[in-house]
Amino acid sequence: MENSTDNLYVIDLTYAKSPADVVFELSSVIDTDAAHNQKVFLKLGNVDLNQSQLLSINSLINSINSTLKLVSSDSKQTEAAASALGFLIGQPKTQDEPKIEEKPVAQYVPMTEHLDSAEKELEKAIDGTTEEAEKEFEVSEEKIEEDFEEKMMIAAQKAKEKIFGESVKHFETLINQQKAENAQKEEVISKKEENNSETETSQADTEILSENTAESAKNEDEIKDFAPVKEPESSDGHLDEKSIQDELDSIFDSENKLENIFAEEAKNFPEAKTGVDIEIPEEELTEDDYEILKMPTKYIKQTVRSGQVIKSDGNLMIVGDCHPGSEVHAKGDITVWGALGGIAQAGSAGNKKARIRALQLNAIQLRIADFYARRPDASNIVYVDKSNTVMPEEARIVNDNIVILKLND
Amino acid sequence: MTGRVIVITSGKGGVGKTTTSANIGTALAKNGASVALIDTDIGLRNLDLLLGLENRIVYTLVDVVEERCKLKQALVKDKKNPNLCLLAAAQTRDKSAVTAEQLKAICEELQEEFDFILVDCPAGIEQGFQTAVAGASEAIVVTTPEMSAVRDADRIIGLLEAREEIKSYKLLLNRVRPNLIKTNDMMSVEDVVDILSCDLIGIIPEDTGIITSTNKGEPIVNDEKSLAGKAYMNVARRINGEDVPFLNIDEPKGFAAFVAKVKKIFGAKA
Hints:
The complex is a heterodimer. Chain A contains eleven helices and 18 strands. Chain A is an alpha/beta fold. In chain A, the strands form three sheets. An eight-stranded mixed sheet of chain A has the order 7-6-18-17-14-12-10-8, with no helix packed on it. In chain A, strands 1-2-3-4-5 form a five-stranded mixed sheet, covered by helices on one side. In chain A, strand 17 and strand 18 form a beta hairpin. In chain A, helix 1 packs parallel to helix 6 and helix 4 packs across helix 6. Chain A is elongated, with a radius of gyration of 22 Å. Chain B contains twelve helices and eight strands. Chain B has an eight-stranded mixed sheet, with helices on both faces. At the A-B interface, helix 10 of A face helix 4 and strand 3 of B.
């Protein structure tokens, strides 16, 4: 599986047949201590990866303090993507193969078993930590931004085309991202002490509304669902085409992506907390932010009443109150010049940088991308608070939690 | 296990169908039965509010019917009572979103897992009513001691009798005010029962606690001191087959009782 050479740490994934396999194997490799603090030579087989997938692989490797130096692949698309991102292209394995020790360091872990153990670890890790370390992801992005900011914009554009054009690719990318995120979370949590020293943060009095438990549980669930699809021989591979299609459909439907949270009813539903001190990492602009800036904005000037639904393909600006029972959905930001009392979903196409802001934020449920938060049960808010003293607030995702920040902070 | 499907209906709006559903459901669950509440008032849902589950609802009855989620995913567990589940109505749709056959299928599915399925019916006798009644085999007709409500209840009982699948129906008299009955300003319980010739399952006194409990999102049966809560608790026991005498709702309490006693002693008219 992986072999240590004198200068480069070789990760041999030539047998991986799909991007999901690659990320999955990678996530098991980075569990081994030997892979830490290495210069990595990534050997890929005939698997097509685009730039955004390579980026997530890179951030995965960065998360264990290793750096991706060399990439080799049988696929031309992957090599092109790698060179566009500035990785060195290695020789094909037949020509220049470093001395390889034949005994594998780690055993091949069946996909389902791995997920089970990962789920347990994740749960344990989440239970044990209240403070979240800054994501390694941002570190990697910083690095990339130095040299390849332009290239990244192109990559993002291409990725977007891919997502909307080829649905199957979207599906694969999605799984990759989810797995990468999960693997990152594990790593990040276990290494939080190291990060804390170098993380520049600001303290603020805030309200946490959600916890990432639900989200990660959901990720695990979804990957589990796909295990038979990816690797039919490893488990009960009796899934017919129709059920696979159903699974795909459920992934594409952004509403249905949420279903796993609520399958467990209140168990996984994010419990609300108020007045918790959390660390707000310094903001960095990503392509998601630029995407929101480019979106069209729908302008609504009315009171949105119970039962009314307002949807926008871009940002949404509402001048007026949103009463309980109403729903506002937008692919970008939602801004309410008034009291927001209903359900608000920002970033409905999956943009995690989307935000919800209102003069009076009393929403029953807040949804940003895949993240959920509900109003605390204890809060005793009148039907619509029409008082003159308003407290403008903004909800956004910080470290995979929906956090409401007062404007004064 | 085959659960009992009971529809709670009235014809007239505002007599307390939803309050009754929430309270009987909670009372049955408190007594140990597993209960599913279905709100069929699509577009004008309120049952979630009375149970204080508004912030937990993501999937609704319409999502189940349109197969956007599985039935179990749409069931919202009660905050206090794990035996109690709510299947909420969609607020952004209308009654035509669910047909009678679809609701019947849902009821049949729920019957296998729950002891009681309580269907909260919308006001009126149109499609919404026809849908709500479709899956039920028993009915509770809620009415108040007012001529308009009694007349509507009469109409509803007629419609229920015409349906073969409704095996039994009972009358629940809500918002009874003993003081007004005494002064002949309100129809008495006996009058209503006479007019409708229907078995009584409960008499619920008017109680200001209902208003605060609605606002708090907490059914009044959770308040053991409240008279209305006790009355609803008794209704739940009667549904379970127990023989419980009706509460004496006109018995004065506290200071009023003391005054009445003093008056009696001095021979004054009580």
